Amino acid sequence: MSTTATRNQTLRGQTVVVIGGSAGIGLETARRAHEEGAAVVLTARNPERLRSVGLELGARTAAFDATDFEQLGRFFAELPKPIDHVMVTGPGPYYAPVAELDFDKARHSVEAHLFLPLQVARHAMGRVRPGGTLLFMGGTGGRRPAAGALITALTAALPALTKNLALELAPIRVNLLAAGFVDTPLSATLMGEQLDARREQLRTALPIRRVVGPADIAALAVHLMTNTAVTGATLDIDGGQQLVEG
User: Fold this and answer.
1) What is the pLDDT of residues 204-235, one digit of tens each?
2) When you count CB atoms within 10 A of the terminal residue's CB, does the N or C end of the chain come out lower?
3) CB contact at 8 A, 165 and 134
4) pLDDT digits (tens, 9 = 90+) for 27-53
5) What's the confidence (pLDDT) of residue 7?
């Protein structure tokens, strides 16, 4: 008998929905939830990658762009009730000074990082069980004004949004994970040839002496699903990056 089968699984009998669950942080959270006994429901835009992950985890899947809010509504309407936890990941932050701002990209960033959590919160009412969790992903990099007006505004907005939703949706719990650099496929795409140098810089500079990975975020996400005393919180998980780069 496997170790997973014999130990106490903290999410056994529960259902975890991961929006953006076919790669990176979302995928690792889905894997961790599956190991903890949860039934997993995954969404992502890439149908082939999603199909592969669905087979790996025995998960129900739905391929669509979560910022298409009509499709998002249909997805939630078709979910069996109740569900226990919903985690929302999204695209990386969009950094640009005002003079170089692409407003189409900016609009999509607002939809993905602000409107999407609001839409998910609305659909969660009546579907997520009391005491269940909504988990949103944010970041810490936008806390520096030099990061750019848009990302700074979105970074500031998400903790306030989380606190308000925790009150409005109670007893559903709502929390925000604020990550620094995380070594994901998305980071590799964004950084290109600079990735290895960035990794080495962080290994040297960070107090934890290593780079934060998706599994670190997943472990905290599952902890928040199971710790029923935490709501309205923004939890930083950056390996001390703000201490050395702030």
Assistant:
1) 999 999 999 999 999 999 999 999 999 999 99
2) N
3) yes
4) 999 999 999 999 999 999 999 999 999
5) 64
Buried b (16+ CB within 10 A) or exposed e, 99-119: eeeeeeebeebbbbbbebbeb
- How many angstroms separate the CA atoms of 81 and 34, rounded? 19
Length of the chain: 246
- The rounded distance, in Å, linking the Cα atoms of 18 and 162 is 18
Strands (E), 69-155: 83-88, 128-139
Assess contact for 87 and 124: CB atoms under 8 A.
no
Q: Give which of 129, 139, 135 is closest to 166, Cα–Cα.
A: 135
- Quick one: tokens of 167? 């009150």
DSSP state of 127: T
Residue 202 CB coordination number (10 Å): 23
How is residue 106 written in tokens? 């900016």
Residue 235 parent element (H or E) = strand 234-237
- 62 forms beta bridges with 43
Spatial separation of the C-alpha atoms in residues 151 and 145, rounded to whole Å: 9
Distances (CA, A) of 114 to 36, 109, 173, 177: 30, 8, 18, 14
Residue located via tokens 């899947």: 61
